[in-house]
Write a structure and sequence with these properties.
It is a single chain. This protein has 189 residues and is mainly alpha-helical. It has a domain of 106 residues: de novo design (two linked rop proteins), CATH 1.20.1440. The protein is built from four helices and no strands. The N and C termini lie far apart (146 Å).
Length: 189
């Protein structure tokens, strides 16, 4: 963990300042608190927060040097350590973004594959339905519909009320039972 090691270097550098003559303990304590906040965020994986706090640390160190609380040499060493930590944080942030992006791309590819499979299944189902519809249509053309018996208009239902025998002649009128007495021959016997 190069990052934490660098943060510790900054802390050690600041704590060494507290014992130097003319270096106020309150300034050293304030800078150390900021370094510890950066280190904690780094350890927790909150690299963006650590980067922001690192900026605060650098501003506080520059302010302390401008106020004459720390020497220009000490400020330069602190800034060098802060720059190294910043580079490491930026690399970790970029790596985390790449990892997140790779995960999102992987998820999208899986979803795309699922959708492609669903589309293929839907196309197969559609093809099967179209095939069945064509088969049914062809079957309807090949096999005529069963003939429906047409009502017999020439031979209406027989009515038993018109004749004695219930028989009718070819015209549909009730006929007479028995023979008429004529043999159907004309002339003499």
């Amino acid at each position: 963990m190069r990052l934490l090691g660098l943060a510790l270097v900054v802390v050690l550098g600041l704590s060494g300042c507290a014992s130097a003559p003319g270096y106020p303990a309150s300034v050293a304590a304030g800078l150390e608190r900021r370094v510890m906040a950066v280190a904690t965020d780094c350890a927790d994986g909150h690299f963006t927060d650590a980067l922001a706090k690192l900026g605060d640390l650098q501003a506080a160190a520059a302010s302390a040097q401008a106020d004459g609380d720390i020497s220009a040499d000490r400020q330069a060493r602190i800034s060098t350590a802060i720059d190294l930590v910043r580079q490491d944080l930026q690399a970790r942030i970029a790596e985390a973004q790449r990892t997140a992006l790779d995960g999102a791309i992987s998820s999208l590819k899986e979803e795309q594959q699922k959708l492609a499979e669903q589309q293929k299944q839907a196309e197969q189902q559609q093809a099967e339905l179209e095939k069945k519809a064509k088969e049914a249509e062809q079957q309807a053309v090949d096999e005529p519909a069963p003939a429906q018996p047409a009502p017999d208009e020439q031979n209406p239902p027989k009515d038993d009320t018109h004749g004695k025998s219930g028989k009718s002649d070819e015209s549909g009128k009730p006929g007479k039972s028995g023979k008429s007495g004529k043999s159907g021959k004309s002339g003499k016997d």
